[in-house]
Specification:
114 residues, mainly alpha
């Protein structure tokens, strides 16, 4: 085999390996929640936080607590786990998320005072 065939085969193998890795990540490593909903919840928090605190504190809170607070609410209130059939799951999750984020802001404010 000449050198050019080896290079072409190596490139094809790299492309196939990359495609397999990408597919595996999409199937098994994707979050169990909707990223757009997570972004929407962060927007709700940021609007509230910005009205009361400076941007730097709000950005710190998002960076430190957003993922944990969001995942906690998704796990705490499953789609089919609400007893009241009239309850809006998204509203319950948003309320819990905002309460969790507010606790995070309080922790950051306490840390700033030290």
């Amino acid at each position: 085999m000449d050198k050019s065939k080896v290079v072409v085969i190596a490139i094809v193998l790299i492309i196939l390996a990359g495609t397999a890795a990408w597919s595996w990540a999409n199937l098994y490593q994707s979050p169990d929640y909707d990223p757009e909903q997570a972004e929407l919840f962060a927007g709700y928090f940021y609007m509230r936080c910005e009205a009361e605190h400076h941007d730097e504190l709000c950005n710190q809170a998002i960076g430190h607590y957003h993922r944990d607070c969001f995942v906690e609410q998704v796990e705490a209130i499953p789609e089919d786990g609400v007893d009241d059939p009239d309850a809006n799951v998204d509203n319950l999750r948003r309320r819990g998320y905002l309460e969790c984020m507010d606790r995070g802001v309080d922790e950051l404010l306490i840390d700033d005072e030290r």
